[in-house]
Structures are given as structure tokens and as C-alpha cells.
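Worked Example 4.2. Consider the chain below.
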Amino acid sequence: MKDLPFPRGVRDLLPNEALFRNQAIRNVEGVFQSFGFLTIDTPVFESLDLLKAKGSIGEDNKLIYELKNENLGLRYDLTVSLTRYYIMHKNLPLPFKRYYIGKAYRMDEPQKNRYREFTQADVDIVGGDYGYTDAEAIAAVCRAYESLGVNYEVHINDRRFIDALLRAFGVKPDLNIGVYRLIDKLDKRSADDVSEMLIELGLGKDQVDSLMGIVTRGGSNDEKLGYLLEVTKDDAELKEFRLLLDLLGRYSLRGAVLVDFALVRGIDYYTSTVFEFKSANKDMKVSIGSGGRYDKLIGLYSGKDVGAVGASMGIDRILDLLDASGSVRYTYAQAIVSYIKQDNYTYALDVANRLREAGINTDINNSSRNLANQLSYANSLKIRYAIIVGDAEQNEGKVKVKDLVSGEESVVSVDDAVQQLIKNGD
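Applying the procedure from the previous section yields the following C-alpha cells:
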């Protein structure tokens, strides 16, 4: 084909990008494991009946990739699959803490930092108590960001606060969902635009002014919560939320935790706590993850409500944020075994296998080319050490170790080469 077709909203990763991504995932996975989260695996497709259930965690039905001639669709996140998994497996311990890192798919309109195929890293806790589990899930994801060197901040709210405000201002309950959706636009639209839309929805000007005065209010977390109490006169939910904030403080997170009454998110399924992780990088202030408490989702499918909270980080957004394309490391190999002539290959292979058995990632030349071209190939992959063998080394059972960065080289036994590479390993 003259021009190879390539789908929109997806991307290939070059070796350096894929290596960077894999290392990032290993870091994240290690953090989640350090918190005691269990690992599971689920299919990338689920029943459409599950994905399209009314009130489920999904997007609009038009965003689901349906499998032709099957009542199946590609998962658009990892939470619906967790819900199905939890219901099907009856003997799971509670609280059930699980992490999962995998791909999801949405038939969304591709744009910068938004893909149709993307990788999520999720932690969820089914069961357990409000505040305690919320703080644990949030802290696990924050620690994962810290392991990657990501500067972040956590925006956090409780959807019950918005309900309390709407009651205090006399807004009709049947307008609540519409109000949620409009408030949620404040990160993309101006306060004046949202105010106009709220009036068009049916709120009075005084109601809009009062509501917007709170959701856009600045100040410290204590100041915001204090003002909320003055308006709603409802201390019970605030006490729970303050406990959550206090618990988060115990984790000594590097990123700021900011109360944000304009944060709504997940309108169809979150029941109380909602939070969003945002990059604190002034050059790329974007959302890099989100989550919340969904105490009704499991009951939607099983008929029995079970409290749950989850937090998700977007791996692809993080790769863009950290500029994975600029990573200079192309291979896991620390060394490459090169040889002078073809007669030296079997000895070179024995040496390569000896290095691999010692835990040293080792490549070997498999092409008919001279030594200069072999070393050029190693340099193109940024491999640090070349292990060179010729007739002299083969006859003596030795190798030449060449540092391709410093240019230093020495002839040593294979065992000594192993020790040298282990000592100088990454």
C-alpha cells in the first residue's frame, strides 16, 4: 500500500516510549502492592447489557465500541468489570482491595491528550468505611504519582454538599442533576456562562448568585467548609468529610489537597466523595486522574448495595506529561555480545547465556556484519557494554569488556565480566 491506513485516536509507541511506559507501570504497580491491594484480571469486553445498564458508570451509549454480531462491547473503564467480578465471585474478603492496570476504549472524538484506546491504573476498595477507604485509595494514587516524579494536586468535594446547598437555596429537587452538569462545566466555561445556563435551566437569579458565590469561592479548606456550614447548618456530613481530610493529612502527601465545591464529576454514579488529580505543572495543567465513592453501583446489578470507592490514574496522560518521547533509553539490555567472525558465534552465544543466567539483560549480534557495524548498532540502542570475543578470547575462555561510553576496555574471564557488569548495573 502506498499510504498505510491507521486508526484515529490510537498511537504506536517507539521502543524508548514503550520502555518508559513499562517502567512507569512497574512503579505504579509496586506502590499499589505496597498498600496491600490485590491484583485481578478481567476481559477487555463485557456484555452490552452490563455496559449499558441505566445509571451505570459508563459514558453515553454512542461511546461504546460494540462487537459486530455479538451482544458485547469493549470496556470503557475498569470499574464496571470490577462490579461484575465482585458479584460473580462470592467469597472475596471484605474490604476487597484490588488494583488493575489495563486498556479501555471509548469511541470519543480524538484530541490532544485524549485517545480512543488508553490505559488506566485503578485502585478500588469494596466495603469498609467512608473516609478511611477514601483516604487510602486517594493516597495510593498520590504515592504512585510521586513514584513517577509527577507534581500533582488533589481537588476534592462531596456531592452531598451540593445537595445541601440546593436545599438551602430552595432549588427544586428535579433540577439537581441539571445543576450538577452545569457546575461541572466550570473548568471549561466561565462563571458568567455557567450562571446564564443555570438561569436558563430554571433557577432564579438570587439562587444562582448564592450558589455560584460558594462553588467559586476561594480561601483555605477550613474557610470554605466553615462558610458551607453557615449556609447549610448541616454538620453531620461535614464531620465525615473533615475526618477524610484529617486522614489524608496522616499520609504526608507531597501534593496539595484542595476542597473544590465546583467539582462534581461522575454525575450518574458517584454518591458522595468525588476527587480529581490535576497536574501542578504550570506548562501542562491537565487532569491526570479522578475517582470517588459509588455506594449504589454494585446494587444496580446485584440488588444489594455495597459501599465502594475507587481512584483511577490515566497512564497515557502521564506519558504525555512526562514527555516519554524524549526518553533516551531504548533497550533493557545492559550488554551486547559481539564477535569478530562467524566461527566465534557459538562461544559468543555461550557467553550471552552465561550473562543472562546471572541476571544481566544481554543482547547478541545475529547478523553478518563486521565489528565496527556491531558496535555502531549497540551505540544506536544506547547499550553501555559490548562483550567482544574473537579467536584469542575464545581459545583462552575470556572476553573483552568494552565500555561504549568511556571507551575503556579490558580482557577478563567470563566470571569477572559477570561481576563487573553486576557491579555497574542500572
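The CA atoms of residues 134 and 312 lie 12 Å apart. Residues 15-325 form a domain with the BirA Bifunctional Protein; domain 2 fold (CATH 3.30.930.10). Compare this with Example 4.1 before moving on.
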